[in-house]
Amino acid sequence: MNVSIVENDFTTWIESLNSASLDNTEVYILNLLIKNLKVISEKGTAGGSRAKYIGSLLERAPSSFDKKLELNRLSSIKDSSEKIAKRIIKLTVGPFRGFNSSEEFVFNKKHAFLYGPNGSGKSSFCEALEYSLLGSIQESNEKRIVLEEYIKNVHSNKSRIPETIGRDQSGDSLTTLCVRIVVTA
Hints:
Layout: H1 3-16, H2 24-35, H3 37-42, H4 49-59, E1 84-93, E2 103-106, H5 122-134, H6 138-143, H7 147-150, E3 163-168, E4 173-177, E5 182-183
Parallel strand pairs: 1-5
Antiparallel strand pairs: 1-2, 1-3, 3-4
C-alpha cells in the first residue's frame, strides 16, 4: 500500500475530528498512530501483524498523555478533487471471503468494536472495508493472489464486491463500489 495515500487519508480524517471533544486516551492513541504510521501501514494483516504491533505500542503507554494532536508529524498533500466522506454509515458484504451470504453492518455510534472467536469473520470484515474504500487488499497483493480469487467465499466459491455508504460534509450519501474515497470521520 502506498504510504502517501495512507498518510493523506489519515491526516484528512484526523484534521476533521473535533479535537476539543477527544479525551486524553483518544489523543494519545492518535498521536501513537501518527508517530508510527509508516511502520503500521507497511505491516500486513495476516496473523494480526498490524494489530499486534499497535497492541505492543499501547502496552508501553506512559502514565500521562499529551493533550495536543501532533499533526505536524504528518506531511501530506490532499487531493481536493475527491469527494470526501465525513462518516461511514453502512458496509454491505457477502459473499466475500468468510461471509457466505450478504451481511449489513450499520455504524450509528461514535465507536465500532469488532470482536469474536477465530473464524467469525473479523479479518474478512476488515478486508471488505479495505477493498470497498481502497479498491485493493494489501494482503492479497503481498501474497500475490489475484484479487478476484482472494475475495471468493471459501464455501460457495462466489464473491460480490463490498459496498460502503458514507455521508459527506453536507449530509449527502456517497456510495462506493470498489472506489477509493477519503474517509474523514
